Protein: Phosphotransferase
Organism: Kribbella sp. HUAS MG21
Amino acid sequence: MCADAPPPREAPDMVHADLKPDNVLVRDGAVVAVVDIGNAGSGTRATDLTTLQWHTFQNPLLEDARRRLWTRILNLVGWQRAAVLAATQILVQLEWPIRHGRHDAVPEVVNRAHRTLDELNALR
């Protein structure tokens, strides 16, 4: 999927690099803070959108949000780079439970990885 992807272009955005729901603090429906910025750096905002997309699988009510995230990611970086970001996200999500001995969590990550790649391939 990623074999022919060109190298990344310049990195124009500030990227959190671990943007997920529990790193966003909300009060009265408005974002008031983003925490845990230890991995922040420059890159493409599609990196953070891909991470958010990954976490939408946890709630069936977020399917529309996931579709909108895919659209935005593809508009920002195109299909090949979106495939690279999805593959990176999958590897990061697999690494965490394996490193912490939570092998029981790996099948769910693999299942979500298949869903992610199926959705991305459908948008090709």
Notes: The first helix runs from residue 45 to 55. The mean pLDDT is 91.
